[in-house]
Amino acid sequence: MTRTALVVRGGWDGHHPVEATDLYIPFLRDSGFDVTIEDDPQVYADAERMAATDLVLQSVTMSQASHEAVKGLRDAVAAGTGLAGWHGGIADSFRASSDYLQLVGGQFATHPSKHPDEVHGDQTDNYLEYTVELTDLGRGHEIMAGLDDFTLTTEQYWVLHDDLIDVLATTTHPVQPYHPWHRPIVSPAVWTREWGAGRIFVSTPGHSLDVLQDDNVRTIIERGLLWAAR
C-alpha cells in the first residue's frame, strides 16, 4: 500500500524551504510515498487529512502556527504520523508555542560566530568548521549505520533540549575568548524522539542547499525520513 507524505514548507526564506524540500521529494516518491505539498501549517488542523498522513516533512523556519494547528500536529504524531526535518525548518519553528517545542524536544538557541575580526556582516559570519560526532547510540542505529564522524563548514547549532530525545550525533561548541561561556557545550546534532505511537527525526545540519547535498547529511536525512514514517 502506498504511504502518504505531507511536505509543509514556508517561513523564513533564508533557509530556501522550497528548493531544500525539492531536493528530497524525488527520494520520497522513489521510496513509495504519495507526496503532497502545503505552504501553511494550518493544514495540521485538518484531523482527517493528518490521520491519513504517514510522514510530515516540515521546513518552516520561525513563522507562527495556530493553537489548532499545533494541537493537530501533536495529536497526529501521537497517533502514529511521523514528523521529520532539518535545521531551522523543524528546530526553530513556531517559537511562541511551548506545545510545539515540547513535541520536537529541541529548540535552536544560537549559532556562534567567528572571531570579531573575521566577521563581515553576512551569514557567512556564522559558518564554522565543526565536527559531527556519532554517539554510541548513533553508531548502532539504522539511521547512522556505516557512517563515521564528519566535518562541515556551516552554521553550528546550539540547541536547548530535554532528555526524552535519543541523540545519535553531537557537536561541541568550544570555549573562545570572544564568547561568554566558560566550558565547552555539547549540543545534539541528530536526534530521534518517540511520541505516543509516532516518531520524530531532526538533523540540525541543513542550513543551505550545499549542506543538504553533503553525502553524510543527505544519507542521514533520507534514512531519518524513512525511520520516522509510519
Lay out the secondary structure.
Elements: E1 3-11, H1 17-22, H2 25-30, E2 33-38, H3 47-51, E3 55-61, H4 67-78, E4 82-86, H5 88-91, H6 98-104, E5 106-110, E6 127-134, H7 136-139, E7 150-155, E8 158-161, E9 166-173, E10 185-195, E11 198-203, H8 209-212, H9 215-228
Parallel strand pairs: 1-2, 1-3, 3-4, 4-11
Antiparallel strand pairs: 5-8, 6-7, 6-9, 9-10, 10-11
Describe this structure in words.
The chain is an alpha/beta fold. Helices cover 27% and strands 33% of the residues. The protein has 9 helices and 11 strands. It has helices at 17-22, 25-30, 47-51, 67-78, 88-91, 98-104, 136-139, 209-212, 215-228; strands spanning 3-11, 33-38, 55-61, 82-86, 106-110, 127-134, 150-155, 158-161, 166-173, 185-195, 198-203. The strands form 2 sheets. It has a 9-stranded mixed beta sheet. The model has no long low-confidence stretch (mean pLDDT 98). This is ThuA domain-containing protein. InterPro entries: Class_I_gatase-like, ThuA-like. Pfam families: ThuA (PF06283). Residues 5-228 form the ThuA-like domain.
Average pLDDT confidence is 98
Distance between the termini: 12 Å
Helix content: 25-40%
Q: Strand pairing plus helix content: what structural class?
A: alpha/beta
Low-pLDDT residue spans: none
Count of DSSP strands: 11
Rg for CA atoms: 17 Å
The quaternary structure here is single chain
Order of helices and strands: EHHEHEHEHHEEHEEEEEHH
Question: Order of strands in the sheet with the most strands?
Answer: 2-1-3-4-11-10-9-6-7
Organism: Microbacterium jejuense
Domain ThuA-like: 5-228
InterPro entries: Class_I_gatase-like, ThuA-like
Pfam family, one: ThuA
